[in-house]
Amino acid sequence: MSDAKLVPAIRPEYELQPRDAGLIGEIERPLSIAERVTNQLWVRRLAILVVLCVVWELYARWVNNPLMFPTFTDVMKALYEAVFKGPLVDRTLTSIRVLLIGYACGIALAAAFTTLAVSTRVGTDLLSTLTAMFNPLPAIALLPLALLWFGLGIPSLVFVIIHSVLWAVALNTHTGFMSVSETLRMAGQNYGLRGIPYVIKILIPAAFPSILAGLKIGWAFAWRTLIAAELVFGVSSRSGGLGWFIFENRNQLETASVFAGLFTVIIIGLVVESVVFRAIEARTVRRWGMQR
Questions:
Q1: Residues 55, 200: one domain?
Q2: Mean pLDDT of 270-289
Q3: pLDDT tens for each residue of 152-165
């Protein structure tokens, strides 16, 4: 084979001119009013609620049985009457006051258990054993014992709320602590942090997404347990709570008022989730880049 055949062919040189970006199409454009509105989370949620209310109204009119399933309009009328002329506001405030007491006590006990668990091996064994024993136990199942121990009143409600909050918050918090990387742990130990300062400055910020999830679950459990307990014996100190309001109207066959009480429970849940916990997320885990 001759050397001439080994010489590569010479390709002609050419130069590509960049195309005008204006000919490609819109790279960036201002959002329309509709796009800016639909990008708001509260607008999308409100639209979902409006659709559900319309479906509710149409279905109730089709059923045409106010005793079994009142219309959304009738429920709103009953809610208005209960708020401005009835006892719904006082009953709701009573329930919220009891809920906050039990929720705060449950969080405090969960903090104590998890602090002990991350500090000592005995504490870890104690928390894991107690969580395995009591977390599957429904809080409402302890209601008969609470009545025997504390009597008919707020202490019994607080007891069952603490049980519903304690194990969910402690389990999620401890799981979050266990997922903290060894790099952060060693960094805190190198700075001489031990005990409670180590938990507050290292473990809590790193595990806060799990802690916040536990707080949400604990809140949901506490709210459900309180309403269920009040449905059973809700009168305390001559004033029942929101669950007792639902129970009373059920006995009187005021189905629209029963739905009004349930609607109040839903509204409070939406407000706490969308306002309180979302504000905490925005100022903590989202600001820290730990959550999208």
A1: no
A2: 81
A3: 778 888 899 999 99
237 pLDDT more than 50: no
Give Cα 289 distance to the centre of its chain: 20
* CA-wise closest residue to 139 among 235, 224, 245: 224
Between CA 241 and CA 223 the distance in angstroms is 12
**Average pLDDT over the chain, rounded to an integer:** 82
d(C-alpha 280, C-alpha 278), whole Å = 5
R_g over Cα of the chain: 29
Neighbours of 174 (CB within 10 A): 25
CB count within 10 Å of CB 180 equals 18
Same domain, 43 and 161: no
> In terms of domains, do 213 and 243 share one?
yes
Q: Across the strands, what pairs with 140?
A: none
Tokens standing for 257?
Answer: 């008022």
User: Hey, which residues does 279 pair with through a beta bridge?
Assistant: none
Which residue range is the domain that position 118 belongs to? 67-283
Residue 75's nearest CA partner among 92, 62, 56, 59 is 56
Tell me, yes or no, whether 290 lies in a domain: no
Residue 19 included in any domain: no
Q: What is the pLDDT of residues 64-77, one digit of tens each?
A: 888 888 888 988 89
Burial of 225 (0-12, 13-18, 19+ CB in 10 A): buried
The tokens for 64 are: 């045409």
Q: Identify residue 279 by its one-letter amino acid code.
A: A
List the single range of 1-5, 153-157, 165-169, 259-263 with lowest mean pLDDT: 1-5
What token pair was written down for 46? 């409100």
Ramachandran region, residue 17 (left: φ > 0; alpha: ψ -120 to 50; beta: rest)? beta
CA atoms of 212 and 218, how far apart (whole Å): 10
